[in-house]
Write a structure and sequence with these properties.
This protein is mainly beta. The protein has one domain (2-336): Autotransporter beta-domain (Lipocalin, Beta Barrel), CATH 2.40.128. It is 5% helix and 57% strand. It is built from 2 helices and 17 strands. Strands 1-3-4-6-7-10-11-13-14-16-17 form an 11-stranded antiparallel β-barrel. Strands 8-9 form a two-stranded antiparallel sheet. A hairpin with a 4-residue loop joins strand 13 (234-245) and strand 14. The chain is elongated and about 65 Å long. The structure holds copper (II) ion.
Length: 337
Protein backbone atom coordinates (compact mmCIF):
# COMPACT_ATOMS: atom_id res chain seq x y z
CA UNK A 1 0.00 0.00 0.00
CA UNK A 2 2.78 2.41 0.96
CA UNK A 3 4.27 1.89 -2.45
CA UNK A 4 1.10 3.25 -4.06
CA UNK A 5 1.10 6.28 -1.82
CA UNK A 6 4.70 6.95 -2.82
CA UNK A 7 3.77 6.69 -6.48
CA UNK A 8 0.97 9.19 -5.99
CA UNK A 9 3.21 11.53 -4.02
CA UNK A 10 5.87 11.18 -6.69
CA UNK A 11 3.34 12.16 -9.36
CA UNK A 12 2.08 15.06 -7.29
CA UNK A 13 5.53 16.44 -6.65
CA UNK A 14 7.01 15.87 -10.10
CA UNK A 15 4.20 16.82 -12.40
CA UNK A 16 4.56 20.42 -11.34
CA UNK A 17 7.84 20.47 -13.29
CA UNK A 18 5.99 19.62 -16.47
CA UNK A 19 5.34 22.54 -18.72
CA UNK A 20 1.58 22.55 -18.76
CA UNK A 21 -1.17 25.06 -18.77
CA UNK A 22 -3.30 24.74 -15.71
CA UNK A 23 -6.88 24.25 -16.80
CA UNK A 24 -8.68 24.50 -13.51
CA UNK A 25 -10.21 27.92 -14.08
CA UNK A 26 -12.41 27.59 -11.06
CA UNK A 27 -10.40 26.78 -7.97
CA UNK A 28 -13.35 27.59 -5.73
CA UNK A 29 -13.24 25.03 -2.90
CA UNK A 30 -16.91 24.13 -3.09
CA UNK A 31 -16.82 23.39 -6.83
CA UNK A 32 -16.14 19.84 -5.63
CA UNK A 33 -18.73 18.13 -3.44
CA UNK A 34 -17.94 16.94 0.10
CA UNK A 35 -15.16 14.34 -0.24
CA UNK A 36 -17.17 11.14 0.37
CA UNK A 37 -19.25 11.80 -2.75
CA UNK A 38 -17.96 10.18 -5.95
CA UNK A 39 -18.66 11.24 -9.54
CA UNK A 40 -19.63 14.69 -8.27
CA UNK A 41 -17.86 16.71 -10.97
CA UNK A 42 -16.49 16.39 -14.48
CA UNK A 43 -13.51 18.02 -16.15
CA UNK A 44 -12.64 20.08 -19.19
CA UNK A 45 -11.16 18.40 -22.25
CA UNK A 46 -7.74 16.79 -21.62
CA UNK A 47 -7.75 17.54 -17.92
CA UNK A 48 -6.49 14.74 -15.70
CA UNK A 49 -7.16 14.44 -12.00
CA UNK A 50 -5.56 12.06 -9.54
CA UNK A 51 -7.09 11.48 -6.16
CA UNK A 52 -6.36 9.66 -2.95
CA UNK A 53 -8.85 9.12 -0.17
CA UNK A 54 -8.44 7.48 3.22
CA UNK A 55 -11.54 6.38 5.06
CA UNK A 56 -11.98 4.99 8.55
CA UNK A 57 -15.19 3.52 9.87
CA UNK A 58 -16.05 2.17 13.29
CA UNK A 59 -18.89 -0.04 14.45
CA UNK A 60 -19.74 -0.82 18.05
CA UNK A 61 -22.86 -1.88 19.96
CA UNK A 62 -25.94 -3.46 18.39
CA UNK A 63 -29.07 -2.53 16.55
CA UNK A 64 -32.13 -4.67 15.98
CA UNK A 65 -34.37 -2.99 13.45
CA UNK A 66 -34.15 0.68 14.37
CA UNK A 67 -33.71 0.16 18.12
CA UNK A 68 -30.65 -0.34 20.27
CA UNK A 69 -30.17 -4.00 21.07
CA UNK A 70 -28.49 -5.99 23.81
CA UNK A 71 -25.76 -8.61 23.78
CA UNK A 72 -28.50 -11.19 24.26
CA UNK A 73 -30.29 -9.91 21.11
CA UNK A 74 -26.96 -10.19 19.27
CA UNK A 75 -26.74 -13.88 20.28
CA UNK A 76 -30.23 -14.73 19.15
CA UNK A 77 -30.90 -16.07 15.66
CA UNK A 78 -34.04 -15.05 13.80
CA UNK A 79 -35.48 -18.51 14.63
CA UNK A 80 -34.92 -17.97 18.39
CA UNK A 81 -31.93 -20.32 18.87
CA UNK A 82 -28.47 -18.97 19.74
CA UNK A 83 -25.31 -18.16 17.79
CA UNK A 84 -22.11 -19.51 19.39
CA UNK A 85 -20.08 -16.39 18.58
CA UNK A 86 -20.96 -12.74 19.14
CA UNK A 87 -19.27 -9.88 17.21
CA UNK A 88 -18.19 -7.05 19.52
CA UNK A 89 -16.86 -4.34 17.23
CA UNK A 90 -15.56 -3.74 13.74
CA UNK A 91 -13.08 -1.27 12.27
CA UNK A 92 -12.53 -0.66 8.61
CA UNK A 93 -9.84 1.33 6.87
CA UNK A 94 -9.98 1.98 3.16
CA UNK A 95 -7.52 3.62 0.78
CA UNK A 96 -9.03 4.76 -2.51
CA UNK A 97 -7.00 5.76 -5.51
CA UNK A 98 -8.73 7.40 -8.42
CA UNK A 99 -8.01 8.88 -11.79
CA UNK A 100 -10.19 11.06 -13.98
CA UNK A 101 -9.58 12.00 -17.59
CA UNK A 102 -11.81 14.19 -19.76
CA UNK A 103 -11.84 13.01 -23.36
CA UNK A 104 -14.01 16.04 -24.20
CA UNK A 105 -15.81 18.86 -22.43
CA UNK A 106 -18.82 16.56 -22.30
CA UNK A 107 -17.31 13.22 -21.28
CA UNK A 108 -15.01 12.40 -18.40
CA UNK A 109 -13.72 8.88 -17.68
CA UNK A 110 -13.07 7.79 -14.15
CA UNK A 111 -11.31 4.79 -12.64
CA UNK A 112 -11.14 3.98 -8.95
CA UNK A 113 -9.43 1.24 -7.00
CA UNK A 114 -9.47 0.57 -3.28
CA UNK A 115 -7.44 -1.24 -0.66
CA UNK A 116 -9.15 -2.41 2.52
CA UNK A 117 -8.11 -3.33 6.05
CA UNK A 118 -10.87 -4.89 8.13
CA UNK A 119 -10.88 -6.03 11.74
CA UNK A 120 -13.68 -7.62 13.68
CA UNK A 121 -13.47 -8.48 17.34
CA UNK A 122 -15.51 -11.54 18.30
CA UNK A 123 -16.39 -13.30 21.52
CA UNK A 124 -17.06 -17.00 22.00
CA UNK A 125 -20.05 -16.98 24.31
CA UNK A 126 -19.42 -20.31 26.08
CA UNK A 127 -15.98 -19.47 27.51
CA UNK A 128 -15.76 -15.70 27.02
CA UNK A 129 -12.65 -15.93 24.81
CA UNK A 130 -12.11 -12.98 22.49
CA UNK A 131 -10.41 -12.91 19.14
CA UNK A 132 -9.84 -10.30 16.44
CA UNK A 133 -10.30 -11.54 12.89
CA UNK A 134 -8.72 -9.66 10.04
CA UNK A 135 -8.90 -9.33 6.30
CA UNK A 136 -7.09 -7.03 3.94
CA UNK A 137 -6.42 -6.57 0.25
CA UNK A 138 -7.66 -4.88 -2.89
CA UNK A 139 -11.36 -4.20 -3.23
CA UNK A 140 -13.45 -3.91 -6.38
CA UNK A 141 -12.39 -1.60 -9.22
CA UNK A 142 -14.92 0.92 -10.46
CA UNK A 143 -15.04 2.42 -13.90
CA UNK A 144 -17.42 5.28 -14.68
CA UNK A 145 -18.27 7.47 -17.64
CA UNK A 146 -19.54 10.92 -16.70
CA UNK A 147 -21.63 12.75 -19.25
CA UNK A 148 -22.48 16.43 -19.04
CA UNK A 149 -26.18 16.93 -19.64
CA UNK A 150 -26.67 20.61 -18.95
CA UNK A 151 -24.48 23.52 -17.96
CA UNK A 152 -25.19 27.17 -17.52
CA UNK A 153 -23.53 29.83 -15.39
CA UNK A 154 -24.68 28.61 -12.02
CA UNK A 155 -26.12 25.17 -12.70
CA UNK A 156 -24.70 21.85 -13.82
CA UNK A 157 -26.34 18.49 -14.38
CA UNK A 158 -24.47 15.32 -15.29
CA UNK A 159 -25.05 11.60 -15.34
CA UNK A 160 -22.69 8.72 -14.68
CA UNK A 161 -22.84 5.16 -15.90
CA UNK A 162 -20.32 2.57 -14.86
CA UNK A 163 -19.26 -0.93 -14.04
CA UNK A 164 -17.68 -2.31 -10.89
CA UNK A 165 -15.23 -5.14 -11.64
CA UNK A 166 -15.01 -7.93 -9.04
CA UNK A 167 -11.31 -7.54 -8.22
CA UNK A 168 -11.95 -7.84 -4.47
CA UNK A 169 -11.78 -11.26 -2.84
CA UNK A 170 -14.92 -12.99 -1.53
CA UNK A 171 -13.03 -15.95 -0.08
CA UNK A 172 -11.13 -14.28 2.77
CA UNK A 173 -10.44 -16.61 5.69
CA UNK A 174 -8.97 -16.27 9.16
CA UNK A 175 -8.35 -18.56 12.11
CA UNK A 176 -11.59 -19.27 13.93
CA UNK A 177 -12.02 -20.10 17.63
CA UNK A 178 -11.66 -23.79 16.70
CA UNK A 179 -8.08 -23.11 15.61
CA UNK A 180 -8.74 -23.91 11.97
CA UNK A 181 -9.25 -21.50 9.09
CA UNK A 182 -12.78 -20.53 8.25
CA UNK A 183 -14.44 -18.16 5.78
CA UNK A 184 -15.10 -14.73 7.26
CA UNK A 185 -18.50 -13.05 7.30
CA UNK A 186 -19.99 -10.99 4.47
CA UNK A 187 -18.84 -7.63 5.87
CA UNK A 188 -15.25 -8.84 6.10
CA UNK A 189 -15.06 -9.87 2.43
CA UNK A 190 -13.40 -7.31 0.15
CA UNK A 191 -15.64 -7.27 -2.89
CA UNK A 192 -19.06 -8.15 -4.19
CA UNK A 193 -17.87 -11.00 -6.39
CA UNK A 194 -20.26 -9.81 -9.10
CA UNK A 195 -20.05 -7.28 -11.90
CA UNK A 196 -22.10 -4.38 -10.65
CA UNK A 197 -23.82 -1.79 -12.79
CA UNK A 198 -23.35 1.76 -11.50
CA UNK A 199 -25.54 4.71 -12.33
CA UNK A 200 -26.09 8.21 -11.06
CA UNK A 201 -27.45 11.66 -11.67
CA UNK A 202 -25.94 14.81 -10.13
CA UNK A 203 -27.32 18.34 -9.90
CA UNK A 204 -25.10 21.22 -8.78
CA UNK A 205 -26.04 24.80 -8.15
CA UNK A 206 -23.36 27.37 -7.48
CA UNK A 207 -24.36 30.79 -6.22
CA UNK A 208 -22.07 33.61 -5.27
CA UNK A 209 -22.07 32.99 -1.54
CA UNK A 210 -22.93 29.29 -1.30
CA UNK A 211 -23.59 26.18 -3.33
CA UNK A 212 -25.65 23.05 -3.06
CA UNK A 213 -26.01 19.73 -4.77
CA UNK A 214 -28.13 16.66 -5.07
CA UNK A 215 -27.05 13.25 -6.30
CA UNK A 216 -28.84 9.94 -6.67
CA UNK A 217 -26.86 6.75 -7.34
CA UNK A 218 -27.62 3.07 -7.84
CA UNK A 219 -25.48 -0.08 -7.60
CA UNK A 220 -27.15 -3.03 -9.28
CA UNK A 221 -25.53 -6.49 -8.96
CA UNK A 222 -25.49 -8.55 -12.12
CA UNK A 223 -26.21 -12.22 -11.48
CA UNK A 224 -24.67 -14.28 -8.71
CA UNK A 225 -21.01 -14.62 -7.70
CA UNK A 226 -18.88 -17.78 -7.64
CA UNK A 227 -19.85 -18.38 -3.98
CA UNK A 228 -23.58 -18.54 -4.84
CA UNK A 229 -24.75 -15.19 -3.50
CA UNK A 230 -25.09 -11.57 -4.52
CA UNK A 231 -24.93 -8.54 -2.27
CA UNK A 232 -28.03 -6.39 -2.12
CA UNK A 233 -28.53 -3.56 -4.58
CA UNK A 234 -27.73 -0.14 -3.15
CA UNK A 235 -29.57 3.14 -3.60
CA UNK A 236 -28.19 6.43 -2.33
CA UNK A 237 -29.36 10.01 -2.26
CA UNK A 238 -26.87 12.68 -1.26
CA UNK A 239 -27.69 16.30 -0.65
CA UNK A 240 -25.29 18.94 0.55
CA UNK A 241 -24.85 22.63 1.02
CA UNK A 242 -21.46 24.35 1.12
CA UNK A 243 -20.31 27.80 2.14
CA UNK A 244 -17.05 29.14 0.71
CA UNK A 245 -14.83 31.53 2.66
CA UNK A 246 -11.18 32.59 2.76
CA UNK A 247 -11.36 34.08 -0.77
CA UNK A 248 -13.31 30.94 -1.76
CA UNK A 249 -10.19 28.80 -1.22
CA UNK A 250 -11.93 27.03 1.67
CA UNK A 251 -15.45 25.80 2.19
CA UNK A 252 -17.47 24.15 4.92
CA UNK A 253 -20.28 21.77 4.09
CA UNK A 254 -23.20 19.98 5.66
CA UNK A 255 -24.59 16.87 4.05
CA UNK A 256 -27.42 14.40 4.41
CA UNK A 257 -27.17 10.99 2.82
CA UNK A 258 -29.90 8.39 2.57
CA UNK A 259 -28.73 4.83 1.89
CA UNK A 260 -30.91 1.82 1.18
CA UNK A 261 -29.02 -1.45 0.94
CA UNK A 262 -31.02 -4.55 0.16
CA UNK A 263 -30.50 -7.91 1.86
CA UNK A 264 -28.05 -10.46 0.43
CA UNK A 265 -29.55 -12.86 -2.07
CA UNK A 266 -28.48 -16.52 -1.78
CA UNK A 267 -25.79 -17.41 0.74
CA UNK A 268 -22.00 -17.91 0.72
CA UNK A 269 -21.39 -21.61 0.08
CA UNK A 270 -18.25 -21.77 2.28
CA UNK A 271 -19.66 -19.96 5.30
CA UNK A 272 -20.65 -21.80 8.48
CA UNK A 273 -22.98 -19.52 10.43
CA UNK A 274 -21.37 -18.97 13.84
CA UNK A 275 -22.55 -15.39 14.42
CA UNK A 276 -24.83 -12.80 12.85
CA UNK A 277 -21.82 -11.49 10.91
CA UNK A 278 -21.98 -14.67 8.83
CA UNK A 279 -25.75 -14.68 8.55
CA UNK A 280 -27.23 -13.11 5.43
CA UNK A 281 -30.37 -12.28 7.44
CA UNK A 282 -28.23 -9.65 9.19
CA UNK A 283 -27.48 -7.77 5.99
CA UNK A 284 -29.03 -4.69 4.47
CA UNK A 285 -30.28 -1.51 6.06
CA UNK A 286 -31.90 1.86 5.60
CA UNK A 287 -29.71 4.62 6.94
CA UNK A 288 -29.47 8.40 7.01
CA UNK A 289 -26.03 9.88 7.58
CA UNK A 290 -25.35 13.44 8.61
CA UNK A 291 -21.96 14.83 7.67
CA UNK A 292 -19.80 17.91 8.09
CA UNK A 293 -16.96 18.56 5.70
CA UNK A 294 -14.15 20.90 4.81
CA UNK A 295 -12.64 21.51 1.35
CA UNK A 296 -9.52 23.54 0.74
CA UNK A 297 -7.65 24.58 -2.40
CA UNK A 298 -3.97 25.46 -2.05
CA UNK A 299 -3.42 28.00 -4.83
CA UNK A 300 0.33 28.19 -4.26
CA UNK A 301 0.58 24.43 -4.94
CA UNK A 302 -1.09 24.28 -8.36
CA UNK A 303 -4.55 24.21 -6.81
CA UNK A 304 -4.06 20.90 -5.04
CA UNK A 305 -7.16 20.10 -3.03
CA UNK A 306 -7.36 18.78 0.50
CA UNK A 307 -10.64 17.71 2.03
CA UNK A 308 -11.96 16.17 5.21
CA UNK A 309 -15.37 14.90 6.19
CA UNK A 310 -16.93 13.40 9.30
CA UNK A 311 -20.14 11.46 9.07
CA UNK A 312 -22.45 9.68 11.50
CA UNK A 313 -25.83 8.00 11.21
CA UNK A 314 -28.84 9.89 12.53
CA UNK A 315 -31.27 7.17 11.51
CA UNK A 316 -30.60 3.47 11.13
CA UNK A 317 -32.96 0.60 10.47
CA UNK A 318 -31.16 -2.72 9.97
CA UNK A 319 -32.39 -6.17 8.98
CA UNK A 320 -32.32 -8.59 11.94
CA UNK A 321 -29.48 -7.68 14.35
CA UNK A 322 -26.25 -5.94 13.28
CA UNK A 323 -23.32 -3.99 14.70
CA UNK A 324 -24.16 -0.30 14.94
CA UNK A 325 -22.19 2.12 12.78
CA UNK A 326 -20.71 4.87 14.94
CA UNK A 327 -18.94 7.20 12.57
CA UNK A 328 -16.79 7.44 9.50
CA UNK A 329 -14.07 9.92 8.63
CA UNK A 330 -12.55 10.52 5.25
CA UNK A 331 -9.51 12.49 4.18
CA UNK A 332 -8.84 13.27 0.54
CA UNK A 333 -6.26 14.76 -1.80
CA UNK A 334 -7.06 15.74 -5.38
CA UNK A 335 -4.73 17.10 -7.99
CA UNK A 336 -5.63 18.05 -11.53
CA UNK A 337 -3.43 19.11 -14.42
CU1 LIG B 1 -11.94 15.21 -10.81
Amino acid sequence: MLKNIYIILFLFTNLSFADHKHNDEDPRADSHAPIHIMCDHYHKKNEIMLSYRFMMMGMDGYLKGSSNATYQNARTKPDGSNYMIVPLEMNMKMHMIGGMYAISDDITLMLMGSYLDNEMKMKKHSNGNKKTMKSSGWGDTKFNILKKLHEENSMKIHANLGLSLPTGSISKKDTMFSGSKGTLGYGMQLGSGTYDLLGGLTYLKKLNTFSYGLQGTVVKRIGENSKDYSLGDMYKINSWIAKPFNDKCSSLSLGLEGVFLEKIDGSHKDITIMSFAQDKESSGYKRINLSAGFNHVIKSMNNIRIAFEFSMPVYNDVNSVQLEKDYSTILGLQYSF
